[in-house]
Task: structure prediction
Amino acid sequence: MLRLEFMPLRRKITLGMVLVAGLALVLSSLAYLAFQARLFRQTKARRAMTLARVVGDNSRAALAFNDQAAASQILQSLSANPDLQRACLFDANGAIFAAYPAGATTFPKFSDADSAQFHAGTLEVFHGIHQREDRLGGIYLQIGSSDLDTAFRWHLIFTLALLGVLVLLALAVSYRIQKVITAPLLDLAAVAKRVSDRKDYGARAERRSQDEIGTLVQAFNGMLDQIEARDAELRIYREHLEEQVEARTQELHAANQELLLAKQKAEGVSRAKSAFLANMSHELRTPLNAIILYTDLMKEQAEEEGRKQDASDLDRVSGSADHLLRLINDVLDLSKVEAGKMTLASDPVQVEAVVDAVVQGLHPQAAKQGDTLEAEIPASLPPFLGDATKLRQILYNLLSNACKFTEQGNLKVSVEAFEKASAPWLRFRVSDTGIGMSEEQLARLFQDFTQAEESTSRRYGGTGLGLSLSRRLAQLMGGSISVESEPGKGSTFTLEIPAPPLPGGAS
Ligand SMILES: Nc1ncnc2c1ncn2[C@@H]1O[C@H](COP(=O)(O)OP(=O)(O)OP(=O)(O)O)[C@@H](O)[C@H]1O
Ligand SMILES: [Mg+2]
Result:
């Protein structure tokens, strides 16, 4: 049998209606049949009692005059009644007076009270016969109930036939009703399927009624309206988006081209700038060297001739010229690095000698500032392959800064060897207990011509070239420079460079 959840709605509704109608019809038919059966029996009993009374009245004279022949005759006349099985008349003592059929002897015991009762398919009737107050006797009738059965059977057949017709009628009516209920639902289901299968959001279900199903259909259509409108909006947006993307791509492309041009221009300018700086520095250096040379000669002459004032003036000129030359050299170096023309020497470098030279060179300045200056170099540092001049330049820049920004403090240069990616490296630390730098100042460090603070150049002099040049040189060597600093506490600059050993381990 089809399980209820898989049964189509149409069949479920029809089945439900027919079941309810059928059950009501069967129950009412049963009640009707029971009532009819009871009515049949009552009628039959009443008639049998009437018959007993009539026979009793007729037999009164025969009983009074003890005329058994007349009594028998009266009983035999009952044979016209086909249902009558047996009958007898009792005398006043309860003895059988006459019997039907003649000669029958077995009868129940006489009962004076009038009664009509059914026993096992037969009706037994007792009726007392009286003459005024005196009892003359009684009558007993035993009547079959086959007529009852026949009548009841016909009744049953008729009722069942009627039941069948009514159930068929209920089926027809429920079929009509279920059609009214399910048609809009089936229509709705078909539209929903079409929407989900074909993505056809233009489909609509027809509203046929104003009941809950009608509301459902209307809500479903409203939902589809919204989806369709949103779809259209999205489509427009998508088309628009493609246009927008296209326009943006073109803009980006144009901007890219512009940037490319600007970059090429900038590179050209940068190259021109570097070339100009290199030329300029060269042009400046030549006369400056002449100035230094002739100043030194004049100073020697003035000293020889005992012109002390002139000698000290010429000494100052010479010092300024030296400073200028260093500056020009820095600018030249920076432009060389920028132009990619700076080359590194690859000679054996004695670390201790380089550090010593830098420390000795800055000793007088440190003493002037009231700083102590110490160097910490491990005894067994092997020489390495590198550019001693550039290393000296970096260390000089770092230590001269430490010196410049520290008064009455401690300056220290330390060296240590370490390994990085299983290659030998060197780490130089230049630390001071000077003015230090804030986070903000640190962020601006290492930029060309930039000092940590605007006021620095006024107070300490300098151009802001030293660190940027040092970092570029360190990078050129394949290393790096980093810094840690705290305002008022001091700074530590750390230089790390690869230190490839000499070929063949020569020292
Ligand atoms: N040891 C230090 N302590 C405090 N500030 C420092 C230290 N070293 C560098 N600075 C800051 O960084 C700035 C940049 O240093 P850099 O060596 O590049 O330039 P400079 O010393 O000012 O000039 P130059 O070295 O060209 O003569 C300095 O002006 C200073 O403000
Ligand atoms: Mg400096």
User: Anything to note?
Assistant: Residues 212-304 form the longest helix (93 residues). The longest strand covers residues 134-144. The chain has ten helices and twelve strands.
